[in-house]
Every structure is written in C-alpha cells, then in structure tokens.
Amino acid sequence: MVKRKICVVTGTRAEYGLLRFVLENLKNSDEVSLQIVATGMHLSPEFGLTVKEIEADGFTITKRVESLLSSDTPTGIAKSTGLGMIGFADAFAELQPDLIVLLGDRFEILSAAVCALYGRIPLAHLHGGETTEGAFDEGIRHAITKMAHFHFVAAEAYRDRVIQLGEDPDRVFQVGGTGVDALKKTRFLGREELTERVGFDLRGRFLLITYHPVTLEHASSAEQVEELFRALRQLDEEVTFLFTMPNADTDGRVMMQMIETFVEEMAGRAFASVSLGQRNYLSAMKHCVAVVGNSSSGLLEAPTLRVPTVNIGDRQKGRLMAESVISCEPDATAIFKALGLAMSSGFKPTLEGTHSPYGEGGASDRITEILLKVDLDPSLLKKRFYDLPVAKR
Predict the structure, then answer these.
(1) Domain 189-351 sits in which CATH superfamily?
(2) What is the pLDDT of residues 276-313, one digit of tens each?
(3) Under DSSP, is residue 368 helix (H, G, I), strand (E, B) or coil?
(4) DSSP states of 234-283
(5) Digit-coded pLDDT (tens) for 188-244
(6) How far apart are CA 10 and CA 251, in angstroms?
(7) Please, where in the chain does CATH 3.40.50.2000 lie?
(8) CATH fold group of domain 4-175+362-381
C-alpha cells in the first residue's frame, strides 16, 4: 500500500500544542508517512529552542526551515517571511508531500502556504475563519484560507465565515478546537511537582500571564505592557505572577526585556519562562487563579478548565468567548478592576456550568479521519469561488 505523505508545519510552542494529538494520530497510522517541518521560534535558542520538546515527545523532525531573523521590526518580520519562503520552497521540493497541514496565522505559516500554492500541493488549514482584530494575524489567517483546499474550523460561526470567503462548503469541516483535546489527554502535575519543575513557588495564588505584541497598533505594545504592570503592582503581595514570554512578532523583544525588568523588580513574586513546555503550561493553567493577557489560550483552553481569563485589549477581539472570559481595555484601572472580579470569591463558582464554544473534545481524531480519506485528485487545485446565494429583491 502506498502511504499518503502528509507534511505538518509547526513554528511555535502554542501551535505545536494544538497540533500535538493530530501528529500522534498521523504517526500511528499505517496509511501515513508523516513529515514534520519545524521552523520559526522552534529553532531559536532565544525562544527556548522548542524543537527539542517536539523530539522529546517522540516525533522525528524531517526538515528544519530557518525563518527567523534577530529583528522584530516591521522590516525584520517582512524579511523573515521571505526567508521562510526560500526555505519552504526547497523543503517541499525535496519532500514532495501529497498534502500539507498548517494551523493558524503566523508569518512563517504564511510563507509555507505561499510555497504550497506555487508548488501545487493541496493544503489543509486548521483554525481558519476566526477574527483577531488587533493583530496582522487577521489578514494572514484569511489569506491562508484562500490558498487552502480543506478547512478544519473550531466552531459553526467560523465555518460560516470560511464559506463566506468563497470556500466550498463540502470542504469546510466543523471539528471543534484541538486545544480541548490537549486538556482532556494531559495528566496534570500537582502544585508541588509543578513548583519543582518550573523553579518558582506555585503553591499559592498566582496569575498565569502571557502578553503578545499588538501588531496593528503603532508603538502601543510597550505602553500596554506598562499598563499591565501598573495594575499588577496594586495587587495583594500574596498574589504571584508567572509570565510566559511573548511571540517573535513586532516589538516582541522589547516586551521580553520589559518583563525581565519587572521580574527583577518584583523578586520573589514574579517569574518568567521562555517556554514552560505544554504539560507544565497546562498544569499551571489548571492551578492558577486566572489567565491574564491577550493569548488565545485564555479563550481556547482556559474555559474548559473553568479558569477565569482576563483578556486585555483588542488582540483577540472578534473571537468567540465563553462567560469565563472578562475583557477589558489596556489601561491599568480597567485591568485592575477585571483582575479583582476574576479573583473574587464569588466569580469562579459561577463558572461551573461554563460551556466552551470550542467543543468538548475529539477534534484531533475527526481531523485525522478526514485527512486520511479526502480525495487528492489534481483537479482539487483548480478551486472555484463559492458564491453565497443572493436573496431576491
């Protein structure tokens, strides 16, 4: 039997976490020859060299595509996108995959999508149809949708949006969020073991904080982080702070430096990690008093654990949000008020009936099943724009 060569591209710790169990299923399938291409932050010591975490989970990296320059200016990000295209062009020409799988909306994923388009390789895209109005990821995500041939979306509203973009409804699959699978399948660490692994005392009340750059707002990332710090300084001394570092986006390194300075200022109360690793991160999410910042994990995963989220600013604006998510403006007064509500004794008990808009699990299995059976006839590449029915006037 000729195995289907499926190539999965991953560039960040967060996106790998969402792909993890799809990769497990593909690796264990007798019908698949799995190719894994690591790129972006995975290959950077500055961002934790997280490719080692993928290998530690038992996966073999088929190719490494360097795509990250030591610059987080708009020019540097644009050049990194171009560098990624050069690398992916060579990688795909060598690997000759039957199907490429991409998740999300980062610039290195855009590089891979463009090369798949030019290489006439069918493309499957996960987590399309979502909106994030405060980041240029918004445009990247929808651009990849138009280059992709199969779409795996996390909610019905996102399926409608992908179809609205002109995609064939028969190739848009509502499967739920893969992040829910990670939570269902992870054996969480207890507080003592988590404290030992992380190297910071997490036995008390702590906030899990991730703040990424807001790439569509000029010179605002540093200002917004400083507003967050102002709010944190007002909290009771018993509350501690566990930071995970931001992505390699515009101004990301500036923010990393600011966080390091804040951690020094709050010695004993704050700790920052470039990469916690998936099990440590999800365990920290389970035990924290609230998830804080503007990371998608506060929306995609935290609600399943009934953990409050303080979602700051516009980076995630437009995404479906559970009732456990408290959104606020990026100013110290609003953040402090939102933190107060999230940590109040009366708020968390109200979340027992929280329903995540991203489903109850099983997305990874559904995606795998479809990837194994979809028709990859060459005619697939000649996409037709699907026009929505027009109501008669």
Answers:
(1) Glycogen Phosphorylase B; (3.40.50.2000)
(2) 989 999 999 999 999 999 998 999 999 999 999 999 99
(3) helix
(4) TS-TT-EEEEEPPPSSTTHHHHHHHHHHHHHHTBTTEEEES---HHHHHH
(5) 999 999 999 999 999 999 999 999 887 666 547 888 999 999 999 999 999 999 999
(6) 22
(7) 4-175+362-381, 189-351
(8) Rossmann fold (3.40.50)
